[in-house]
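Structure ticket #2291
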Amino acid sequence: MARLFFLLSGEHPTLPLSELRAIFEAVGYEYRIEERLPQVLLVEADSKSVEAVKSRSAMTRVCGLELFNCDATVASILGKARAVSLEGFLEEGESLAVRIRRIRGSASSIDRLELERKLGKVILSRTKGTTANLTKPQRTFFGVLTENRFVFGLKMAEIRAKPFIERNPQKRPFFHPSAMSAKLARCMVNLARPKPGDLVLDPFCGAASILVEAGLMGCRVMGLDVQPHMVRGSLKNLLHYGLEPEAVAVADARRLPLTKTDCIVTDPPYGRSATTLGWGTQQLVEEALSAIIERLSKGWRICIASPKSIRIGEIGERLDLKHVESHLVYVHRSLTREIAVFERV
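Resolution: structure written out below.
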């Protein structure tokens, strides 16, 4: 077990932490949360888990191996840097850089660039044959100023936002205005906790936002939609990313044409740009959930988005699903999504 730290996205108050925990649980790594700080999570876990976070996460920014954490004062930080063991963090002859991120104006009296320079100087003075390289370092040391604390260590992975931006709805061959962003779709898949090779079903697949992200994570995918043109568009988007679904078919989510799936991740139609073909959103979701339950084995999960106003958590509980968690995501003045996770019990 290693001391790890994760810099989380600040775009939502609860989703980044829940996604990270879901990834650990999906891939089967034991972990223990040591401390929560604003946008930073300190965790004891196998260092190999970082690769799973890097390949799956949408809302983690940086993964690091912790060297130390302390009060956010220059004296405390440099004192810790001079005292901590660097064994295993830097080899003789390697080049290095130090990068520091400040969260929400934390420790505003500290000059971030000057602290990077001072920490780099300390590390160079304590290692043999190492050099500074600010453009292409072999090792990057990464620190976070958050609230009144400083967390510092070796950067192991960085998850960049650009690939998600490039997969957003406007960038795909088939576009529909109700389509979910790639980042939120990826997060929802993670909350359902599938492993690579598991079958992920989206019974309201639309433009395939969820299926694309699940497929890129190594899951098998199947999509259903009641509208033929959406099914054709969904397939077009999947093939664009080199993904071959188990099936994409025209079907009513209330009458699913399959017997079993490993987990379900879905975003039923609602709002001005979506159509429910005359069905009320609440009735549609409730009937679909009723049909979905029978296709899941005990312990498997459903992650579903719906308008906050229909109280999806209460609907699931009425159907004897275990309501694991919910997250509210503001879309615009007339729509706030509730992202709910249920477990089949």
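Closing remark: The domain at 2-158 is CATH 3.30.2130.30 (VC0802-like).
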